[in-house]
């Protein structure tokens, strides 16, 4: 039997969008760009398409999927809404905010890991929005990578990880934000809570809702427990190379020349124990937006570098992106 060909990468032309929309309508799955990370999209209401997503990623059934829409009008068929949902949608959609809401029967249980709630958002990436409109269907789309591995932020990352498992990838360039969406638990609108930090800050949500929002905490979901939202497993976003986290890097504490040092900001002068070869940074100028955008690509580069360990420095501060970066690093560094 001949090997399956590598997935083809398609430019975002009108013709290609029609081709990919037709493939999705027939139950296929497609790697798609979003403003956060690349996703693996399939018809959220087609159980067979959803099964393909889980199989391609090797994703366990207890980790639910986010359903993506192109307009707020689609939401009524999928979830119970409230005035709080409408306020947040006006303020943040399209954008990197996912809402967890009570689901309606139209949403298959496989999408939600059997829970009576569904995670939904309207993405901001223009090509993904165009594809959603062309499909006229809600699309389930977890990150387009093997389950648990570093999230993809380019079409090439998707092909590297899933190229033999899928047929289609839509190229939308490098993701603008680089970390997954903020997830807000709104099952009870009286008690909103952040489940996963992202680019949308808790304080910004509080200003819109005019009420307190519980902060994200170190949620740990076991291998058998059905999660309420994706991204809550203790180990996630992980390279094969072990990561050790530090508040501030002090490279002189190790003598190994095969260990890599990932600074938040490139130091003006290399500390003792660092060389131009084993020193890396998420940002040159200290901008959190640059650090978030390069986080996963840098981890992939280090994972391919045959280092025995990656020493990584946490992002400073408590802004939305700092919390998001540190959440991803913490889960990436969790023990196997």
Give the topology string: H per helix, E per strand.
EHEEHEHEEHEHEEEHEEEHEH
Q: Give the end-to-end Cα distance, rounded to a whole number of Å.
A: 35 Å
Content of β-strand? 15-25%
**Estimated structural class:** alpha/beta
Average residue pLDDT:
93
Explain how this protein is built.
- This protein folds into 2 domains: 8-79 and 104-179, Alpha-Beta Complex (DHBP synthase); 243-332, no CATH class.
- 26% of the residues lie in helices and 18% in strands.
- It has helices spanning 14-25, 47-57, 83-92, 126-135, 155-162, 202-209, 288-303, 320-332, and strands at residues 8-10, 30-32, 39-43, 66-68, 97-102, 117-121, 139-140, 168-170, 182-185, 193-196, 243-246, 259-265, 279-283, 309-313.
- The strands form 2 sheets. It has a 10-stranded mixed sheet, sandwiched between helices. A 4-stranded parallel sheet has the order 11-14-12-13.
- A hairpin with a 6-residue loop joins strand 2 and strand 3.
- The two termini are 35 Å apart.
Which terms summarize this structure?
single chain; 336 residues; DHBP synthase; 4-stranded parallel β-sheet; 8 helices; 18% strand
What can be said about this structure in brief?
This protein is of the alpha/beta class and 336 residues long. The protein has helices spanning 14-25, 47-57, 83-92, 126-135, 155-162, 202-209, 288-303, 320-332, and strands spanning 8-10, 30-32, 39-43, 66-68, 97-102, 117-121, 139-140, 168-170, 182-185, 193-196, 243-246, 259-265, 279-283, 309-313. The chain is 26% helix and 18% strand.
How are the elements arranged and paired?
Layout lengths: L7 E3 L3 H12 L4 E3 L6 E5 L3 H11 L8 E3 L14 H10 L4 E6 L14 E5 L4 H10 L3 E2 L14 H8 L5 E3 L11 E4 L7 E4 L5 H8 L33 E4 L12 E7 L13 E5 L4 H16 L5 E5 L6 H13 L4
Parallel strand pairs: 1-8, 2-8, 4-6, 5-9, 11-14, 12-13, 12-14
Antiparallel strand pairs: 2-3, 3-7, 4-7, 5-6, 9-10
Helix pairs in contact: 1-4, 7-8
């Amino acid at each position: 039997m001949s090997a399956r060909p590598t997935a083809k990468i398609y430019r975002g032309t009108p013709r290609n969008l029609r081709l990919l929309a037709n493939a999705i309508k027939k139950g296929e799955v497609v790697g798609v760009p979003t403003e956060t990370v690349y996703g693996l999209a399939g018809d959220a209401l087609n159980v067979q398409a959803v099964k393909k997503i889980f199989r391609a990623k090797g994703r366990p059934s207890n980790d639910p999927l986010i359903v993506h829409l192109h307009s707020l009008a689609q939401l009524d068929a999928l979830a119970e809404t409230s005035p709080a949902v409408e306020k947040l949608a006006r303020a943040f959609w399209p954008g990197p905010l996912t809402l967890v809401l009570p689901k309606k029967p139209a949403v298959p249980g496989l999408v939600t890991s059997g829970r009576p709630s569904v995670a939904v958002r309207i993405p901001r990436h223009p090509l993904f929005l165009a594809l959603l409109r062309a499909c006229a269907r809600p699309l389930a789309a977890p990150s387009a990578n093997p389950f648990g591995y570093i999230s993809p932020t380019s079409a090439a990352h998707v092909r590297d990880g899933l190229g033999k498992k899928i047929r289609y990838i839509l190229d939308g360039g490098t993701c603008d934000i680089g970390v997954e969406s903020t997830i807000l638990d709104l099952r009870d609108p009286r008690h909103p809570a952040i489940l996963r930090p992202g680019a949308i800050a808790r304080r910004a949500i509080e200003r819109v809702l005019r009420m307190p929002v519980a902060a994200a905490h170190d949620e740990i979901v076991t291998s058998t427990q059905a999660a309420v939202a994706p991204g809550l497993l203790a180990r996630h976003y992980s390279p094969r190379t072990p990561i050790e986290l530090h508040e501030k890097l002090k490279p002189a504490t190790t003598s190994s020349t095969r260990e890599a040092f990932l600074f938040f900001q490139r130091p003006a002068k290399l500390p003792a124990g660092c060389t131009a070869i084993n020193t890396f940074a998420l940002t040159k100028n200290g901008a959190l937006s640059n650090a978030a955008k390069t986080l996963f690509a840098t981890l992939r580069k280090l994972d391919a570098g045959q280092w025995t360990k990656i020493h990584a420095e946490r992002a400073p501060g408590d802004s939305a992106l700092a919390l998001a970066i540190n959440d991803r690093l913490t889960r990436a560094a969790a023990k196997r």
